[in-house]
UniProtKB/TrEMBL annotation:
Organism lineage: Bacteria, Pseudomonadati, Bacteroidota, Sphingobacteriia, Sphingobacteriales
Alphabetical keyword list: Hydrolase
Superkingdom of the organism of origin: Bacteria
GO BP term (any one): carbohydrate metabolic process
GO MF entries: hydrolase activity
Protein's UniProt name: Gylcosyl hydrolase 115 C-terminal domain-containing protein
Entry keyword annotation includes Secreted: no
Alphabetical list of InterPro entries matching this protein: GH115 (IPR031924), GH115_C (IPR041437), GH115_sf (IPR042301), Hex-like_dom2 (IPR029018)
UniProt entry tagged with the keyword NADP: no
Length: 800
C-alpha cells in the first residue's frame, strides 16, 4: 500500500505552511464540487453520504456538478466512463497501483497552471465508494458519526498539501461483522425505538413470528453505512430466535444491494438459511438430513432460487438448527460421512440456481466447535471453498492453516469473537477484549495466509466500537497496524474522536481499562459459570481466589481509573459529551462499578466492609445504564442492558456470611514479566497481566539469573497465554534450572475441558515446577519454546 502522506496527518487548515497552494476541500466555508459521470449505484450512495457529512463541517456543503471545473473532486472508475478515461489520460495519472485490484482506490491532486482537481479513482465500485468516503475522514468526520454520536468540528478551511496522493487496497478480500446475541440490545432497540414500522414479508405465517421482533431496512441501512465507512463489505445478519430472519423482512435485501454488502451467514446457517428460526417457520418435519433429506434440500432450494443475482457468501455443510451438532449422526465418523454428502448435494443446488461453475461462487466451510473434529477426521471440502477457522470464543484461534491448506484456491478465513454467549461464561455486556490480544492472534493468522474472509462477532455493535474498528483496520491494512502498533492505533482513534489533548490523556486510561479486564472481565467477577451440570453450585456467586490485599489493590486501581475518567469528562466540550459517555464513560465506569459490586461483596462476606458498598455500586450501574438509554433524546433507548440473560453476576449480591476464610496472600520471591527475561524474545505491546508478554519462537530460549536464594528448593510458576497449537498438534515449552535436564511441559487443552475453562476466564495457562537448589545462592532459570505459539506472560519464583 502506498501513502505519500499518511491520511491522519493530511489536514492543513488555512494558516498552514502550504497556505493556499494545496487543494481546498473546504474554502471559506464552502465545500468543493463533486463530479461523477458514471452510473454505479454504490458510488452514488457513497457520494450522498459524503455530501451529507459535509453539512456538519462546512457552512455550505459539497455540491454536485455535471462538469468538472477548477476545484472539483472528480470521481470515477477506469473503463466506466469515456469522459473519465479521457481525463485520466489527459492528466497522465498513474493508476498502476490499483489497476485490476480488488476494492482499491487512488486519490491524487492535479494542478494545471492555476487550476486544481482532486481525483478519486476506484478499481471497482467498492473501491470508488471507499475513496469517496475517505473524503469524509479527510474533513474530520468519524466513521462513528451516527453510531456513537461523534460530532464533527466545524471548519472554514480544509486544505490538502501540494502533491497529495494516497493509494489503498484491502489485505483481506471479505471483511465484516456478525450481529449476534442481539436479544437485549440491537433487536429491542430497532423494533421499539428506531424502526417499529418494519414489516414482515407477505406469505409468512404471523402465528409463527408473533413472539419475534424485527430488524428492518432502516436499521440495516445504518449498519451497512457504518460498514462502508469502516471499509468493510460483509455481514452475517442477526439470527437469534427473538429476531425475524433477515430475508423475511421487507426491504432488507434491497438495502444490502444499495450499500454493496455481501450477505453471509454463520456456522449453523447453510446456504443463506437462518435455520435457528426459518426452519420452524417454513420447514417441514425435522431438520434432519439423514431422515428428512428431501424436505431439507427443498428448503435450501427455495432460498437459492431468489438469490441468483445477489451478493452472497454461502456457508456450506450442516450443524443443528442453532448452535448444536448435526441431527441424526452419532460419532465423528458418521458426522463426517453425512456432511460430505451434504456438501455434494449443496454444490449441486448452487450449480442449479446460482452459477453452473461452483468455483465462481463465494463459499465457506466453518470448522466451529465439533465440526473442527469432523474436519480433522478427513471431511471433504472442495478446493475452491474457503476454510474459515475460528477462535475458541474467547479470542484464541484454534487452528492455523498448514502448508497444504495455505495452497487452497479458496484460501483461508477467520471467525473471531469480541462478544460471546456460552460456557464457561458469557461476556455480552461490556466489550473489553484486549486490543493487544486481538492484534497478536490476527497478526499470526495473517502470517499463516488467513486472508480471504475475516468476520468478527460484535454482538449488538455497541459498546464494541473500538475493537470492531481495530479488527476491520487490520483486515484493510495489516502492515500499517504492525508498523505503528496497537498503542498508536488506539491513540489515534481517541484523538480523532475527542481531540489531541484529550486523546493523550485518555490513552493510558484505556490501556489500563483493557489490562485490568484482561486479568478478569467484568462479566466474570462473580466467579460463576454457565451451562454446567451442577447449576446450583456454578450459578452461586462465590469468592474469587484472591487475597484481601489483591482485592483491595484491584479496587484501588479501579477507583483511580474511575476518577481519571471523571476528570477528563468534565472538560470535554458539550458537543462531544454524549460520544464520550458511550465510548469512554459507560464502558470504564461500568467495569469499575461491577468490580466494586463484586469485590466489596467478597470483603463484606468476611465482615471487612459494609454491604452498602456493594449495593451502592449496583445502584450506580443501573443509573449509568438508564443514562445511556436516555442519550440524545432517547435515540439509544433499549440499546444498553446491564444484565443480558439476567445472569447471577448482574444481580444485586445476596448478603451472606462466608463459611471459609479468604485465601492467604503468598508473595513470590520474584515476579518476572516476559520482558524481564534475557534472550531472543519478541515483546507484544500491551499484552498480558502487566502488558509485558513476549512471543518465544520454536527453538528460542530465555533465561533469568536468580540471586540471593536462601532455600533448599525453588518453585517456578510459568504463566503463558492460553493459546492453541500453531504448527502441528502440540503446544509445549521446556524449563530447566542451570544444567538440570530440560523438562518438557505441554499446556495444550482439548475441547472445552475444565482446564480450558479456567484458562480463558483468567487469560493464563499456568504450570508449576519445583527444583532443588540446596547449597546454591544463585541459579539460572531457562525457558525455551518447543513449538510455535508460545507466548510467555509471567514467571513467579517461590522459595518456600
Amino acid at each position: 500500500m502506498k501513502r505519500v502522506i499518511g491520511t491522519f496527518f493530511l489536514l492543513f487548515i488555512a494558516f498552514s505552511n502550504y497556505g493556499q497552494e494545496g487543494f481546498k476541500l473546504v474554502a471559506n466555508g464552502q465545500g468543493a464540487s463533486l463530479h461523477y459521470s458514471g452510473t454505479m449505484s454504490l458510488v452514488r450512495t457513497a457520494i450522498g453520504l459524503v455530501v451529507e457529512d459535509s453539512k456538519s463541517v462546512a457552512e455550505r456543503p459539497f455540491r454536485l456538478t455535471d462538469e468538472p471545473k477548477d476545484g472539483s473532486v472528480i470521481i470515477g472508475i477506469p473503463g466506466e466512463s469515456q469522459t473519465f478515461d479521457q481525463l485520466l489520460a489527459k492528466h497522465q495519472i498513474d493508476i498502476s497501483d490499483i489497476k485490476g485490484q480488488w476494492e482499491a482506490f487512488h486519490i491524487q491532486t492535479i494542478t494545471v497552471g492555476n487550476t486544481q482537481y482532486l481525483f478519486v479513482i476506484g478499481s471497482d465500485p467498492h473501491g470508488a465508494a471507499y475513496g469517496v468516503l475517505e473524503l469524509s475522514r479527510l474533513i474530520g468526520v468519524s466513521p462513528w458519526v451516527w453510531w456513537a454520536d461523534v460530532t464533527p468540528e466545524r471548519k472554514s478551511e480544509v486544505i490538502l498539501p501540494v502533491g497529495f496522493q494516497d493509494s489503498q487496497r484491502p489485505n483481506v478480500q471479505y471483511r465484516g461483522i456478525f450481529l449476534n446475541d442481539e436479544d437485549w440490545g440491537l433487536t429491542p432497540w430497532s423494533a421499539h425505538t428506531f424502526e417499529p414500522e418494519a414489516k414482515i414479508k407477505e406469505g409468512i405465517d404471523p402465528d409463527k413470528t408473533k413472539k419475534m421482533q424485527t430488524i428492518g431496512p432502516k436499521t440495516y441501512s445504518k449498519i451497512f453505512e457504518l460498514l462502508l465507512r469502516l471499509r468493510a463489505n460483509t455481514i452475517w445478519p442477526a439470527m437469534h430466535e427473538v429476531t425475524v430472519p433477515f430475508y423475511f423482512v421487507q426491504g432488507n435485501r434491497e438495502a444490502s444491494e444499495k450499500y454493496g454488502i455481501y450477505i453471509g451467514s454463520s456456522h449453523c446457517e447453510p446456504l443463506a438459511r437462518n435455520s435457528a428460526t426459518e426452519w420452524d417457520i417454513v420447514g417441514e418435519g425435522r431438520y434432519n438430513y439423514i431422515t428428512n433429506k428431501d424436505n431439507v434440500l427443498s428448503y435450501w432450494s427455495d432460498r437459492l432460487k431468489k438469490l441468483r443475482n445477489s451478493n452472497n457468501i454461502f456457508t456450506m455443510g450442516m450443524r443443528g438448527k442453532h448452535d448444536g451438532a448435526m441431527e441424526g449422526v452419532k460419532g465423528i465418523a458418521a458426522y463426517k460421512d453425512a456432511i460430505d454428502k451434504v456438501i455434494v448435494d449443496q454444490t449441486e443446488l448452487l450449480k442449479t440456481y446460482i452459477n453452473s461453475d461452483p468455483s465462481k461462487i463465494p463459499q465457506v466451510v466453518i470448522p466451529y466447535k465439533e465440526v473442527l473434529d469432523v474436519y480433522r477426521a478427513g471431511m471433504k471440502v472442495p478446493d475452491y471453498v474457503t476454510l474459515m477457522w475460528c477462535d475458541d470464543n474467547y479470542g484464541y484461534i484454534t487452528h492455523f492453516p498448514d502448508a497444504k491448506e495455505k495452497q487452497r484456491s479458496g484460501g483461508n478465513g477467520v471467525y473471531y469473537h469480541i462478544s460471546y454467549w456460552g460456557r464457561p461464561h458469557d461476556y455480552l455486556w461490556l466489550s473489553t477484549a484486549s486490543p493487544a490480544l486481538i492484534h497478536q492472534q490476527l497478526k499470526t493468522a495473517y502470517e499463516y495466509e488467513v486472508r480471504k474472509i475475516w468476520i468478527v462477532n460484535v454482538g449488538d455493535i455497541k459498546p464494541g466500537e473500538y475493537q470492531t474498528e481495530l479488527f476491520l483496520d487490520m483486515a484493510w491494512d495489516m502492515a500499517e497496524i504492525n508498523e505503528k502498533g496497537v498503542k498508536q492505533h488506539l491513540h489515534r482513534w481517541l484523538a480523532r474522536e475527542f481531540g489531541d489533548e484529550a486523546g493523550e490523556k485518555l490513552l493510558p486510561i484505556m490501556q489500563e481499562h483493557y489490562r485490568l479486564a484482561h486479568i478478569r472481565k467484568p462479566e466474570f467477577m462473580g466467579n460463576t459459570r454457565e451451562e454446567e451440570a451442577d447449576r446450583t453450585y456454578y450459578r452461586t456467586v462465590r469468592d474469587l481466589p484472591w487475597s484481601e490485599e489483591e482485592v483491595r489493590h484491584r479496587l484501588q486501581s479501579y477507583r483511580e481509573l474511575s476518577t481519571a475518567v471523571s476528570v477528563i469528562e468534565s472538560v470535554i466540550p458539550e458537543n462531544k459529551r454524549e460520544a464520550f459517555f458511550q465510548l469512554i464513560t459507560y464502558p470504564i465506569q461500568g467495569a469499575a462499578e461491577m468490580n466494586q459490586k463484586m469485590l466489596y461483596a467478597q470483603l463484606a462476606r468476611h465482615g471487612k466492609v459494609d454491604w452498602k458498598e456493594s449495593h451502592d455500586a449496583f445502584d450506580r450501574i443501573v443509573r449509568l445504564t438508564d443514562q445511556y438509554n436516555a442519550l440524545n433524546g432517547g435515540k439509544w433507548n433499549r440499546m444498553m442492558d446491564y444484565k443480558p440473560r439476567n445472569l447471577p453476576v448482574f444481580q444485586r449480591v445476596k448478603e451472606e456470611q462466608a463459611t471459609v476464610p479468604m485465601v492467604s496472600d503468598v508473595k513470590p520471591h520474584l515476579t518476572l514479566n516476559g520482558t524481564d527475561l534475557q534472550g531472543p524474545s519478541h515483546p507484544v505491546e500491551g499484552l498480558g497481566y502487566e502488558g509485558k508478554a513476549v512471543i518465544v519462537h520454536k527453538g528460542e530460549e530465555l533465561y533469568y539469573d536468580l540471586e540471593k536464594i536462601q532455600s533448599d528448593s525453588v518453585f517456578v510458576e510459568v504463566r503463558l497465554l492460553p493459546g492453541h497449537p500453531v504448527v502441528g498438534s502440540e503446544l509445549r515449552f521446556g524449563v530447566a534450572l542451570d544444567d538440570t535436564p530440560l523438562q518438557e511441559i505441554s499446556y495444550k487443552t482439548v475441547g472445552r475441558s475444565e482446564e480450558w475453562k479456567m484458562n480463558v476466564l483468567r487469560n493464563q495457562a499456568i504450570r508449576k515446577i519445583s527444583f532443588p537448589i540446596k547449597g546454591k545462592d544463585k541459579a539460572r532459570i531457562k525457558i525455551s519454546a518447543l513449538d510455535e505459539g508460545v507466548v510467555l506472560d509471567q514467571v513467579l519464583v517461590f522459595t518456600r
